[in-house]
Design a protein that fits this description.
181 residues, alpha/beta, homotetramer, 7 strands
Chain lengths: 181, 181, 181, 181
């Protein structure tokens, strides 16, 4: 049995439903399920909602494909497109868990997203960052520090992507080159 | 849309595959999926494995119905019947998260299970404990302290069950009487 | 340089200041500082306050001898006798950290205390439990499961103590027999 | 009674003892104790060790002034200048707790430091960043996102400082202007 991999979509929880960031996150969610991933988010609104919603729009979607790791203890706070809720009760420290998905894709994002990018880097995860306003644009193409990340390819960095379509192309091409400890 | 509820099965990670405890946990997992629940465990062996394995044996089972919340950071340590792995990296503190499932069923269990029973009580969850060797037998029929648990029925306690079948009868009858904050 | 060991006092956060439990916890805190320990608690009221307050009453007390590991994120919620506040923001999961002190002494206690006793057992810590109403009385003299705890003496169990004075005698006699991994 | 405030020093755990970064962190630790703060770090080596060591060199230093929040569960891994060890067992998620100190000062730093800077921002803490190689230089003078941080001054940002001496001048001048929720 091969377990389906997980792809975390991280970004601004306040992104409006008519924004470019929301649309991109939605497309990332949809394409992630198309590509065989389960979608993980922090379970709340904005980019987290968009990614779960997009996952539901994939022709490959099945109930159970979206996982929401809430900061609080009330499962009722999850957005409507989260199928599996984990109410961690850990507050922002849950960001460290979101960033342990098999692959991490950033869509814009503020300080919370920045903490998740940093953790994903520490955890040796492949990271793809969309060129949209926020930390994802700023960190695309960079390394987050100079220490070697064991089990990563020679050109390891936060991979930049100009669109959701490109992001998933990079994910599919790259993620199996990573072997986090 | 109604989200499927989650049922955590907790118990001894060292239970052998031919033990009574393992058989009971397996049946709890199967009957939980029969009853419409998703199964949550700590993702490792013994009772955790049994519950996930049983879930896969339900006629209602669909891929994605078992969630494993690992203590460590390596998803590869999950048992073979975990569909969705969350590698928390929190060590034993992840027990606090397992115990936030909508319903908690204990099957035997040592000190780790005891910590989960205590957290489930603190979190106001409905708890069912099988009459099998370990903390589940010892705490069945009891309250874990005298403080009122808001949103619980008048006869709130750790409900004892003589078998997996009875455990699920109690779960189905009782769990919607609980409204944790 | 030898670092001073830490002693966690765990128990009911709702114990009243005129109760027997509060008086015992206060004496445990005082005697712990007398014996060279730093006092660790969950930082809130009842037994946690009593232990910190008692620590301040030891002739050996120096500012910095009481550490409070709060569940929430607001340091202002610590009781007045906590010198060093760590606002963990982890909710009840912080109980897992309290239970990593070098020694754990339980004074009464409900479900939260029970979770800490379970974690202290898992972590291989020496545990002393006062014979006062609550989980400390119930678990004194027992083992919390049958698995061996490496680095512990042959008669390893939750040691029962009839008074604060006896508790500290047991702590002083016993704690260096424990070598948790 | 007024509780002494805490100042976290964050930075690269691999900084060598003869590096500029180590020297600066050591001076920050010393000046922090001079100014009445208790010093909090992640308890390990490099910048964490330097800050604790510097604290010990302050004329105002008293045993108990340095707190180390370890990622692992073994208190023996703390550096020699940590007086109070909290072995969290949470792995990198403990960074979220370090970043809840009353004030945060960054000295260089890689991805781990970046996660702490992000959390300190989320938690509404005053942050001072030294102009030394690493994330502290890159983020000095910036805001980490555009969302308002309630209880902060009008010119709220990550304050840049050219030296340890300047960092403490900024801390002393600024930190009481912050009133995190």
């Amino acid at each position: 049995m091969t377990r389906r991999p997980t792809l975390a979509v991280i970004g601004d929880g306040t992104a409006e439903a008519d924004s470019e960031v929301y649309a991109a996150a939605r497309e990332v969610g949809r394409r992630a399920v198309d590509a065989g991933f389960r979608v993980v988010t922090g379970g709340l609104n904005g980019v987290m909602e968009a990614a779960c919603r997009g996952a539901h729009e994939s022709p490959s979607y099945r109930e159970g494909d979206t996982l929401g790791l809430l900061p609080g203890s009330n499962a009722g706070n999850a957005n409507a497109w989260v199928d599996v809720v984990v109410a961690t009760g850990l507050g922002h420290a849950r960001n460290a868990i979101v960033a342990r998905a098999d692959v991490v894709v950033a869509v814009g994002g503020g300080a919370g997203t920045l903490s998740e990018l940093a953790f994903a880097w520490i955890h040796g995860r492949p990271i793809v960052a969309l060129e949209l306003p926020g930390w994802s644009r700023e960190l695309g193409g960079r390394r987050l520090d100079d220490r070697p990340r064991p089990g990563t390819p020679d050109d390891d960095c936060v991979f930049a992507a100009a669109s959701a379509a490109e992001a998933l192309r990079v994910v599919v091409e790259r993620w199996q080159q990573y072997r986090p400890a």
